[in-house]
Amino acid sequence: MEQLAQRVIEQISKVVLGKSREVHLAVACLLGKGHLLIEDLPGMGKTTLAQVLAKVFGLSFQRTQFTSDMLPADLTGISIFDQEQKTFVLHKGPIFSQLVLADEINRASPKTQSALLEAMEEHQVSIDGVTHELPSPFFVIATQNPLFHSGTNPLPESQLDRFMMRLSLGFPSVEAEKQILLGDDLKTKLSSVETVITTEQLSAMQEAVATISVDEKVLDYIVALCQVSRTSDFSGNPLSPRAGKSILAAAKAWAFIAGRDYLVPEDVQAVFESVSEHRLDAGAFSLDNNANLSRQIIEQVDIFAS
Amino acid sequence: MAGARANFQLSKADYSHLLLTQAFTILLFFNELTSWMLSLIALSILWQVAQLAKSRGTLALTINTSETNENTSQVSSYASNLSLLGRETARAGVVRKKRLPLISRLKPTPKLVVMLFALTGAGIIIANGRSLGLLLSMVHLICFAYGIKSLEIKSRKDFYQLILIGLFLQACALIFIQSLWFTMLVIAVAVLNLGLLYRYFSASAGWKLPITRSGKLLVYSVPLAAALFVFFPRLSPFWQVPLAEKAKTGLSDEVSPGDIANLARSDELAFRVEFFSNAPSKGQMYWRAMTLPYFDGQSWKRSPEGRTASYLNLPADISRAAGQSYQYQVMLEPSNQRWLYSLDTPFVDANEASSSLKISRQYDYSLINERPINATKSYQVTSFSGAVRGQNMPRSFKHFFTNIPENNNPRLTELGIELAQTYANKRDIINQTLIHFREQAYFYTLQPPRLNKNGRSLDQFYFDTRSGFCEHYASSFAFLMRAAGIPARVITGYLGGEYNQQGNYYSIYQYDAHAWTEVWLEDEGWIAIDPTAAVSPDRVSDSMSDALRQQRVNLAGSFSWQAFSSAAWMLKIRMQIEAIDYQWNRFILSYTMDKQDELLRQLLGDGRLWKAALIIALTFLSMIGLLWLRNQWLSREKVNTVWQKQFKRVLKLLNLQGFTREQWQSPHKLVEPLNNAKMGLGSQYEDLYKLYQQLSYQPMVDKQRDKLARKFQKSSQGFIKDLKQTR
Predict the structure, then answer these.
(1) How far is the CA of B219 from the CAs of A288, B193, B470, in angstroms?
(2) For chains A and B, what is the number of CB pairs under 8 angstroms?
(3) Beta B359-361 vs B325-332: how paired, if at all?
(4) Do A213 and B699 touch (CB under 8 A)?
(5) Which residues are paired to B295 by β-bridges?
(6) Which of A93, A287, B400, B689 could lock A76 by a disulfide, CB 3.0 to 4.6 Å apart?
(7) A264, A268, A299: which to substitute to probe chain B, counting the most B Cβ within 10 Å?
(8) B212: CB partners within 8 A, 6+ apart
(9) Residues A113, A102: contact at Cβ < 8 Å?
């Protein structure tokens, strides 16, 4: 099954060039049953990554462009009166797909943001008093522009916490950029990507990730990292136990991709920045000082502490 | 990096360990080496210490000058710079990948210096060779070679050689002293020496590990050593280790007033006695060493100078063994003299014939060995207190024992003649003299007034100064008796002893030395008379140390062991320590070929040889079996910690070589620098770390873990070895 994960990553890397680490992390996030927040400047390939993920995993996919005038119903769907049948019929919104791409989430009003985030947490939506289960697996990829861009509503801490990881792709390397310039357009590239995995296989992989064994020493390491964020001389927000759970889940997925059935501290280190940074800086994202806070924490904990 | 030979390097820690071992080993021979040789070796070691210090000092100096030119308080800044420097270079090691100065490339010692040392040493040995004798010359030679060999360690072979010679020397040190405490010291130095080997291979920087490891090794070897000690054939004298010749201690074979008083200031142990029967009271314990029948006008001697007196060939004549009998064992300290000690009239026990001593009894009932006593020895004796001795002494020999030089001590001679005229009964003459000593103002003192050496010293003592030590009384009494026509002679030996409760034995020290007399009476033979007892009965009934402690304390000035040991608890501790030493002497040192023979006979009956071989083989096998069991047993719990320690050691070693990482960083970080710097080591290290991770974090059953841990152990050792080879 690890080979499967490797093949998935191979396929994605065909489209998202020179971003091996980010691709690995995104796959880890999906295998860890978490939602992904991609934050970067426009045109850096956020959408491409989301699309190719959907394609590779063979998931039903809906893309929604968030705008400031968007209402929650635009996302969840509405009941419309059917003249012939004389009943209200639910027209499901884009959220009823296995992979939802919420583009530029921070352009929408907080109300709409909340609707999405609620669905992410509960795996269900209520429309007109009726609760509807969302499909499984359910995976949200949200992208957002940096906060200093005009017309953005920052996500509050509580909602940021729902995302397992925040990634930023960053500028491609010279080599990769040259390839991008010469390459086909997105559509042709996407068509070259094969769906290598079934929904059942994805579920099985997610199960396998959950059963990765964790030594107490690694748990100690994770707790130690969280503890550092809670000390008084640390400037960022403290990490919640939910953050800790996310770290563990992501690290397990990372170990799975690496082909191991046990967790090592290096797995934790690999995912720590992506999982914790948006919780630590509470969305105060700026391109130049990213990764500062999580790095501070890591540097304070001996990897052999336990 | 040329060939491995040229590459041989000792780390700084290795080198200081080596020098320390050398210094301690040489110190074991402190008494044996001439001061010239000692200072030469010390010089060689100091030279190396200086070289070692220099290899650190130069670097510190360059940085220091650049920073503190204007600083007035140079000393303090120098110190702080040194500590700064440590951190600085540690960082620099990462950035510039420069080898730290920790693995010192000592400059090879200039050939001229080595030559100078070698020639000087050879000169010293040649110059002293004649006076030193063969054994000591050889000891000098090997000590010297050991001391300067470290000047030119070019290859690993040289290093091994030094360790081996060190072990040999440590064993050699036991030729000279075999006491328990010295043996322990020797063992400690041997542990230090073996620790050096351990340190070299483990590249550990501290002291704890090398010492504990080699100490453990030593403990493991104890059963084998014990088996070999008991069963290994004792070699015939031809193969025995040479015995060192040393200065004679204890009594000398002539006594003039003042001799024993000097001896009485010595705390040294003379011998120990264990009684198998009832012990006589302390006042009865006159340990005879020798008789001094010849008076030359100044001193009492065994025989006239230069010739053997005919009386020495008299048969020991004993009418019957009568009176109380005492059976006891005497354990001698090496005195390098021939005589042995016994009570009254001794009979050497028959089974003592096989002992390593060749004891014979003299005409005067004293015991004498064939050769000087130069090691701790023991013998068993039965003494009879009531035996009549020399009753049938030929008349012709009587004049030997009444002979006094003419014109010597005229006043005493006159007094003797007068006494002989006054009293018909010889008993009365003796009693009158003793009464004279008792009732007149005679004093017993360690600091007798100085007497003239003009042949009138006994007169001077008897009539004028009237204070003296035992030999004064014995000499003058014997002289007076001879003047009165009674055969008399002076006996030297020891009186009393200190009872050790823990060990149930008596210790007789040099300060127990004593002199008394024997007079010959018709029908009674030789009887012992102690004139000192008449003057100072305390001396006889109490031990010497009691009687004269106060005087001795005064003599010694501020502090002395005797004064210190008078505290009750100190006395107890001292007794305990001495009891241990006694048992050591009794069971270990006196385990001779005969004793071994006897033990084997008792244990095995006949056909001893193959049985002994069987026992040795069984011991070996059972030891191997025990070791195997121990490994099995320990592997469970130990394996879990050993590999962790081992990996930390690998990291430490890498750190020393400049492959550093921060505490939080994954050890995996070092793979790339290693690959860049050293061929193939990176992947080796990566595999090692993978194993470590598996051991640490992967769940598995114990058996699998043990297997993996062993694999880890092996590959980590291989890695350390490779790492060292390429340095």
Answers:
(1) 63, 15, 51
(2) 36
(3) unpaired
(4) yes
(5) B300
(6) A93
(7) A264
(8) none
(9) no
Kindly tell me the burial class for residue A222, based on how many C-beta atoms sit within 10 Å of its own C-beta (0-12, 13-18, 19 or more).
buried
Higher pLDDT, A303 or B727: A303
Handedness of CA B348, B351, B353, B354 (dihedral sign): negative
Tokens found for residue A216: 């107490």
| B479 touches B259 (CB < 8 A) | no
CB contact under 8 A, A215 and B693: no
Please tell me the distance from the alpha carbon of residue A138 to that of residue A159, in angstroms, as a whole number.
17
What are B197-236's pLDDT values in tens digits?
A: 888 877 666 788 888 888 988 888 888 888 888 777 766 5
Judge whether A5 and A109 are in contact, CB under 8 Å: no
Across the interface, whether the CB atoms of B663 and A217 are under 8 A apart is answered no
Interface residue A262 vs chain B (CB under 8 A) = yes
- Give the list of residues 6+ apart from residue B125 with CB closer than 8 angstroms, or none: B37, B137, B140, B141, B144
Cα–Cα distance for residue pair A157/A139, rounded to 1 Å: 20
Tokens of B699: 């769940």
Amino acid identity for residue B566 in this structure: S
Give the torsion through C-alpha atoms of B485, B486, B487, B490, to 10 deg: -110
Interchain CB contact of B693 with A (< 8 Å): yes
| Residue B61 predicted with pLDDT over 90 | no
Residue B23, classified by CB atoms within 10 Å of its CB into exposed (0-12), middle (13-18) or buried (19+), is middle
Higher pLDDT, B293 or B167: B167
Answer with the residue of higher pLDDT: B718 or B542. B718
Touching check for A75 and chain B: CB below 8 Å?
no
Which residues from chain A sit within 8 angstroms of residue B645, using beta carbons?
none
Distance CA B184, CA B192 (A): 12
Across-strand partners of A132? Answer: A125
Query: Cβ(B413)–Cβ(B482) under 8 Å?
Result: no
Tell me what the pLDDT averaged over chain B comes to: 76
Query: What's the Cα-to-Cα distance from B68 to each of A3, B61, B71, B86, rounded to whole Å?
Result: 63, 10, 5, 17
Q: In this model, does residue B166 exceed pLDDT 90?
A: yes
Residues counted in chain A: 306
Read off the pLDDT of each residue in B347-375 and give the average, rounded to a whole number: 72
Q: Pick from B536, B527, B531: which is nearest to B515 by CA?
A: B531
State whether A303 and B697 contact (CB < 8 Å).
no
Find, in chain A, the residue whose alpha carbon is nearest to that of B697.
A215
Q: Which of A262, A263, A302 sits opposite B664 (nearest CB)?
A: A302
Cβ-contact B482, B488 below 8 angstroms: yes
Do the Cβ atoms of B462 and B416 come closer than 8 Å? no
ipTM score of the complex? 0.83
| Nearest alpha-carbon partner for B483 in B414, B399, B423, B396 | B414
The reply to whether A240 touches chain B by the CB within 8 Å rule is no
Contact predicate A143/A39, CB 8 Å: yes
* Burial degree of B52 (CB within 10 A; 0-12, 13-18, 19+): middle
CB contact under 8 A, B666 and A266: yes
Tokens representing B580 are 């241990």
Q: Please give the model's pTM, rounded to 2 decimal places.
A: 0.46
- The Cβ-side half-sphere exposure at A158, using a 13 Å CA radius, reads 6
Q: What is the 3-state secondary structure (H, E, C) of A159-171?
A: HHCCEEEEECCCC
Q: What is the DSSP string of B347-415?
A: EE-GGGGGSSS-EEE-TTS-EEESS---S-EEEEEEEETT--BSTT--GGGGGGGT---TTSSHHHHHH
A259 and B CB contact within 8 Å: no
Query: Given CB atoms, is A298 within the 8 Å cutoff of chain B?
Result: yes
Going by the DSSP 8-state scheme, the letter that residue A263 receives in this structure is -
